[in-house]
Amino acid sequence: MKINHPFLLITAFLFSLLLTACGFHLRGLEKIPNNISHINLQTNIPAPYLWPALQEDLRNNGAILLSQDNLSQAQAILLIQSFSNSNQLLSSTGVAEAGLYQITSTVTFVLLNPDQNKNKILLGPITLSAERQYSSNAMQVLSNQSIQTRLSKDMAHDLANQIIHRLATYHE
User: Fold this and answer.
1) Domain presence at residue 11
2) Considering its fold, how many domains does the chain have in total?
3) Is a pLDDT exceeding 70 seen at residue 21?
4) What is the per-residue pLDDT for 66?
5) 7 domain-assigned
6) Continuous segment of H or E residues that includes residue 141
7) Residue at 132 is within a domain
8) Which residue would you say has higher pLDDT here, 46 or 91?
9) Do residues 109 and 82 make contact, with C-beta atoms less than 8 angstroms apart?
10) What is the mean pLDDT of residues 37-56?
């Protein structure tokens, strides 16, 4: 059976036209708006996995990170107000055996105007969370910590992406 190449090309073209007409597009990097692209990150909260993930994602999405020394050049201050992790047992399988766990990471942030005279909140406060579940049994006690670490890193990247998405939609 011979396949008609023009028919395939027309079909592929019509399919791609249909997808773009409905607003579908692949998610790539989200550009941080120019009016807040020079950002100073601030927090006193320990967030060992979130902090590097957020810095990397901000840089990858067009932000220029400024230190406290260069605060006068900042267009915005991204202040991490709170960060927490919780681990909850959802179900147990039997006598002294663990079952299904849920790990939740939550972050609250606010975007501020760096001008000390204005002290204006540009965005927020916004609270975001990510959660993952994993199962465990008595034979996996030694691997539970590595599972929790891997899931915590994954959730930190998820939260950083959520923060970037919120910043990318900001407009004055």
Assistant:
1) no
2) 1
3) no
4) 86
5) no
6) helix 141-168
7) yes
8) 46
9) no
10) 87
